[in-house]
Amino acid sequence: MGEITKEMTAASLADFESNRKQLAVQRAVVKNGILESAENVRSHTENVPVFSIDLHTGEVANQKQSGRCWMFAALNTFRHKLLNNFQLKEFELSQSYTFFWDKYEKSNYFYENILATAKEEVTSRKVAFLLQVPQQDGGQWDMIVSIFQKYGVVPQYVMPESESSSNSRALNTQLNKKLRKDAMILRQLVAAGKDEATIQATKAKMLQEVYNFLAISLGTPPETFDFEYRDENKEYHIDRQLTPHTFYEKYIGVDLDNYVSIINAPTADKPFNKSYTVEMLGNVVGGKEVKYLNVDMTTFKKLAIAQMEQGETVWFGCDVGQSSTRDTGIMATDIYDLNDLFDIDFHMTKAERLDFGESLMTHAMVLTGVDIVDGQSTKWKVENSWGKEVGTKGFFVASDAWMDEYTYQIVVRKDFLTEEQLAAFNEAPTVLAPWDPMGALA
């Protein structure tokens, strides 16, 4: 192994100090910071928040200090329908309700994966992967579908936010501590040769403790409630004794089985027009399988546009931290010019970033508009879930080039797919490793 010598360091210093441009840049960056010094003002003027297709969505929601973006994004697509169908000025569905059941189901999913791998060494990659983060706030579209289908949804006022749903770090820390200890106990039972009934009885006690923990932290999920609201015409409405399922069926009514996840992963191991799933990725045992159809980016964007042209917003997953400003809400590949700032070539292709761990899906939001000029998309309107203090009242703008590079997943209706695409989606999927970047949770 080659060490760094004093002579090498001295030469590096001399080279740096001989470059007057670098010394000037140093002063700017030390004073203002890297991104602030690299920000490209022209990118703001090219991404003004005006769109040829701009769907009505109401005010943005706020996930606060939690990783529930995938859940917020899905509930936001439902909220858009409610606002329009029932003439509501503002309305939110309970993110705390779905959060509760997701945590409960993820705990059971973790237990079952621990039991499935109980005869592997604790140092095996799969077991180490499970124990690293037994559960977390994030998820994917098919996972939230499993929650909706099993537990329904409720208005936010029926199960409002709590401190632990809005700021979930302490909840996750303690729940993961419990799950790791439970994993140890379950593995010990298997090693001792205990029968299945004993193991499942032990797991049932563990799940009761998880339920109690969640109920104390988040509140108890309602079984029935009254739906009460006043529409934009000031007319009062009330619907009594609804369950989470009857509320979903009556007021949302979306056939979730009619939606498919489309990804763009241009890596050599994932040929286009093939379906994929990820091992050990899910939340509800017996729930909906996480499954994708991989397509090229041109097809990907056409599908998203087709759905918005019919008045329906689009759930999507991306790497939000790449080339984006939080305060002004611009996501553009040229928003920061780091290559010129440091005189370093940072460029990698989308496939290279996925293969070498530089990018993956980190956040889910909703596409609510797109600007089309001469038949081509130029920029996209994005509903975020970080409150209305960021971006333009909470909405971001993504350049078309940014979409190409950092967007990985959309959810669209099956009827937008060609027969060939639908047949490819319906094929038995290729199973990806648990740590594949397409298994990242938003």
Provide a descriptive summary of the structure in words.
With 442 residues, the protein is an alpha+beta fold. The protein is 43% helix and 16% strand. The chain contains 17 helices and 13 strands. Strands 1, 4, 5, 6, 7, 8, 9, 10, 11, 12 and 13 form an eleven-stranded mixed sheet that branches. A two-stranded antiparallel ribbon has the order 2-3. Strand 9 and strand 10 (376-383) form a beta hairpin. Helix 6 (95-116) packs across helix 8 (141-151), helix 6 (95-116) runs parallel beside helix 10 (169-191) and helix 10 runs antiparallel to helix 11. The radius of gyration is 24 Å and the shape is globular. The model has no long low-confidence stretch (mean pLDDT 97). Keywords: Aminopeptidase, Hydrolase, Protease, Thiol protease. This is Aminopeptidase. InterPro entries: Papain-like_cys_pep_sf (IPR038765), Pept_cys_AS (IPR000169), Pept_his_AS (IPR025660), Peptidase_C1B (IPR004134).
Rg on CA atoms, Å: 24 Å
Which descriptor suits the 3D outline? globular
Number of strands: 13
Low-confidence runs: none
Q: Would you tell me the structural class of the helices and strands? A: alpha+beta
Family: Belongs to the peptidase C1 family.
Organism: Enterococcus camelliae
Keywords: Aminopeptidase, Hydrolase, Protease, Thiol protease
Protein name: Aminopeptidase
Please render the helix and strand layout as text.
Blueprint: H1 6-17, H2 20-32, H3 34-38, H4 41-45, E1 53-54, H5 69-85, H6 95-116, H7 125-132, H8 141-151, H9 163-166, H10 169-191, H11 196-218, E2 225-230, E3 236-242, H12 244-252, E4 259-263, E5 274-278, E6 292-294, H13 297-309, E7 314-318, E8 330-331, H14 338-342, H15 350-355, E9 363-373, E10 376-383, E11 395-399, H16 400-406, E12 407-413, H17 419-426, E13 430-432
Parallel strand pairs: 4-6, 5-13, 8-11
Antiparallel strand pairs: 1-9, 2-3, 4-12, 5-6, 7-9, 7-12, 9-10, 10-11
Helix pairs in contact: 6-8, 6-10, 6-11, 10-11
Family: Belongs to the peptidase C1 family.
Protein name: Aminopeptidase
Keywords: Aminopeptidase, Hydrolase, Protease, Thiol protease
